[in-house]
Design brief:
This protein is an alpha/beta fold. It has eleven helices and seven strands.
Length: 312
């Protein structure tokens, strides 16, 4: 069963000390990220890694045409990603709009191994009034959300209003109550790796349980270099505070090969403790069927057509 770790008790956010955040060497981070894609993985380890990747997936539907029936279908896919003989675990979560949380909770019930995540705070722009954003969070949690994926106000961050962004994250964290908070940086709009590093540190200091790359609505979304910058920020934060913060790359991860490269990067940057759905997730619904096809191939020795798998 995938269970959320109890949030650590946090002190009030510390002042943002931008000068203490290291500058990112673009060439080095891109070369190191590329090196993770070249690791050789034996079939037994590959099969284990692919099943772990499924357990780490947040299956997502964030469309204007979402219906309770579509959400129920997504929940069923998350609970039973593959036929029983393949021994594939349930997915980590389903991610839906706040208005769909109650339908997901009705389908999954109170003790499901699949969590319910909900985007909030004026997703994907983050530009709504703070009162509206907080009300949306409280509504989603009251309807049964286990996790809230909030998006920061990138305009405020890029304008240097770091204290304002920090205060808003802290307010959302309070509004979450028992739910975990994933803070979406929307790295495709942050322009530089240095900004990604600053935003990662800011979010963790302000109370994020996870930091997340993207909404999936902006290109580029998740990339390995950006994710590596965020993982290194998590590592340094752990060394400084003892708190384990989770990571969620979202958008643009489509193949089993890519998923395994991300897991290698997590292992070599943060260690085995982070190889769990409690501390690492993929936000990539288009990824699941490619991973399932590879699991079937490694188990049975032959490919199945994509038509044999239900759409996420």
């Amino acid at each position: 069963m995938v269970t959320a770790a109890a949030p650590a008790i946090r002190k009030p956010p510390a002042p943002i000390r931008v000068s203490s955040i290291p500058t990112i060497d673009q060439i080095m981070v891109e070369e190191r990220a590329a090196a993770f894609t070249k690791r050789s993985i034996k079939n037994a380890a590959k099969l284990t890694g692919l099943k772990l990747a499924v357990a780490m997936m947040d299956l997502t539907t964030l469309e204007g045409k979402d219906t309770p029936g579509k959400v129920a279908y997504l929940c069923q896919k998350a609970l039973h990603p593959a036929a029983p003989q393949y021994d594939v675990p349930p997915c980590g979560a389903v991610c839906v709009y706040p208005s769909m949380v109650r339908h997901a909770r009705k389908y999954l019930g109170p003790d499901s191994p699949v969590h319910i995540a909900s985007v909030a705070t004026g997703f994907p722009s983050g530009q709504y009034p703070l009162r509206t954003r907080l009300a949306e969070v409280r509504h989603a949690v009251a309807d049964g959300a286990d996790e809230i994926d909030m998006v920061i106000d990138r305009g405020a961050f890029l304008a240097g209003q770091h204290a304002r962004v920090s205060d808003e994250i802290a307010a959302v964290k309070t509004a979450c109550g028992p739910a975990h908070l994933k803070v979406i940086l929307e790295t495709g709009e942050l322009v530089t790796y240095d900004n990604v590093r600053r935003a990662s540190q800011l979010a963790m200091d302000a109370g994020a349980d996870f930091i997340k790359t993207s909404t999936g609505k902006v290109t580029p979304a998740a990339t390995m270099p950006v994710t590596l910058v965020m993982l290194e920020a998590i590592r340094d934060h752990f060394y400084a505070t003892g708190l384990r913060i989770g990571m969620k790359p979202a958008g643009g991860i489509r193949t089993a090969k890519q998923a395994l490269a991300y897991l290698v990067m997590v292992k070599e940057t943060l260690g085995d403790d982070w190889l769990t759905p409690d501390l690492f997730r993929f936000g990539a619904s288009t990824l699941v069927n490619d991973v399932l096809m590879q699991i079937v191939k490694l188990t049975d020795g032959n490919y199945q057509s994509p038509d044999y798998f239900s759409l996420p």
